[in-house]
Amino acid sequence: MTTLQERLKTEAQDLHNQLVAWRRDFHAHPELGFEETRTAGIVAEHLHSLGLEVSTGIGKTGVVAMVERDGASPDDPTVLLRFDMDALPIHEETGLPFASQTPGVMHACGHDGHTAIGMGVARLLAEHRQQLPGRVKLVFQPAEEGVGGASAMIADGVLENPKPAAAFAMHLWSRLPLNQVVVQPGPVWAAADKFDLIVHGRGGHGATPHDTIDTTLVASQIVVALQSIVARNVNPTETAVVTVGSFQSGSVGNVISEKAVLQGTVRSFNADIRALLHRRIDEVAGGICQAFGATHEFSVPGGCPAVVNSPEGAALMQQVAEAVVGSEQVAQIAPMMVGEDMAEFLNRAPGCFVLVGAASPEKGLFSPHHSPTFDFDERMLSTGVALMANAAFAWLNEQTA
Prior knowledge:
With 401 residues, this protein is α/β, with parallel strands linked by helices. It has 2 domains: 3-188 and 306-400, Aminopeptidase (3-Layer(aba) Sandwich); 191-304, Alpha-Beta Plaits, CATH 3.30.70.360. The protein contains 10 helices and 16 strands. It is elongated, with a radius of gyration of 23 Å.
């Protein structure tokens, strides 16, 4: 390790108590996507205190800060580091002393930790800004949980003035060994799309079904038939998921409903497979509806592409991770079907998205993400800071070597 790498790692470890305090405060006061006003305010105040140029309200509640040395040239390279801030509509059941104080809202995915890590990275980079051979754009993103926060920030110009040439991010993971770092080129997480499917029929009395077009029956046929898409339309060497998670039709037992609403998700890695899934859901639903005399509406109201690491970004993060946690703690895994809109940044500024292990089974810290009992081992916070700060320096040094 270089002297600077060693210093950043040591300084990150020295920040541990502060990182824990930040994380627990965010955990106790979770905010849903595009509602992160308190969180964004704390982040912005911290960044201002470091003497950084700060922009707020990017993508509604996002915060952006620039870190650069005095006299930086307009031609200096820029790298982006992203940290997400939003919580989930889940009622917490951890019993922690710093548990959510907002009923029905919880940091059940670790974004409280990510925000704390981002604040720690900002401190370290600000303290070493005169050694930066370029610029670091710190992006604190709202609404990662399927609400389009990355796209909103991009629409507000987060990738301009200056334009980053690479992007890096990390996600703590409660089912990986503590401080294990997953780094790999290519797909890491899947494209994740929501879909809505509305079936329209003709309602009536439950005793006279021949006078109706029963949308409950039609939609039931659709749910079953959709499972044939992966089984019979997707090449078996590819990976895909079609899930119907919500089925709403009717309100009482003796009335045949005139409308059924299905909501679900599709997951894939390959862009062509992603398009195939959308097309076939619409076609299968349309064919079944036609057979029963019903009609349908199909839409994909939100989603994100697959998270794909560039070979160069993964190679750089491999070196950084080995320096921070040791080569024996750096691993690869099978790509996961989880979605993450960091993909929107990586599609425009190729880089790397890594996972950092945060499990501690002996402490009971092993609940899955999006669980009401989710928690993680806070000893990974310093690791996250060291990884991201070193990644910024490593990438900038490569560009100016």
